[in-house]
């Protein structure tokens, strides 16, 4: 299952680019909040912040989780970020 998911994600990135880049092609632009825990490498967070600064409809926050699934791993912290965003 994991290898199939990885192939599907790889194919989607090849066709559409990253999710923020794909969303940038939409008109109108959606308000987007990207919550992630991984990867923990500095350049990934920097890239998210730079994209956010150039695109006011996009925001990103790195959560304090250890997996790729903060919604499952730290649901209360994830909900605390989503609630104000959703209004």
Mean pLDDT: 93
Instruction: Write down the secondary-structure element order.
Output: HHEHEHH
Secondary structure tally: strands? 2
Helix count? 5
Q: Any idea what the shape is? A: globular
Helix and strand composition category:
mainly alpha
- Ends apart, CA distance between termini: 35 Å
Provide structural commentary.
This protein has 87 residues and is mainly α. It is built from 5 helices and 2 strands. The chain has a two-stranded parallel ribbon with strand order 1-2. Strand 1 (32-36), helix 3 (42-54) and strand 2 form a beta-alpha-beta unit. It is globular, with a radius of gyration of 14 Å. The mean pLDDT is 93.
Secondary structure topology:
Layout: H1 2-16, H2 19-24, E1 32-36, H3 42-54, E2 58-62, H4 70-73, H5 75-86
Parallel strand pairs: 1-2
């Amino acid at each position: 299952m994991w290898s199939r998911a990885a192939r599907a994600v790889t194919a989607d990135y090849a066709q559409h680019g990253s999710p923020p880049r794909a969303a940038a092609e939409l008109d109108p632009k959606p308000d987007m909040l990207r919550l992630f825990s991984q990867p923990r490498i500095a350049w990934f967070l920097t890239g998210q912040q730079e994209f956010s600064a150039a695109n006011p409809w996009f925001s990103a926050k790195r959560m304090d989780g250890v997996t790729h699934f903060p919604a499952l791993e730290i649901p209360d912290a994830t909900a605390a970020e989503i609630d104000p965003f959703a209004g």
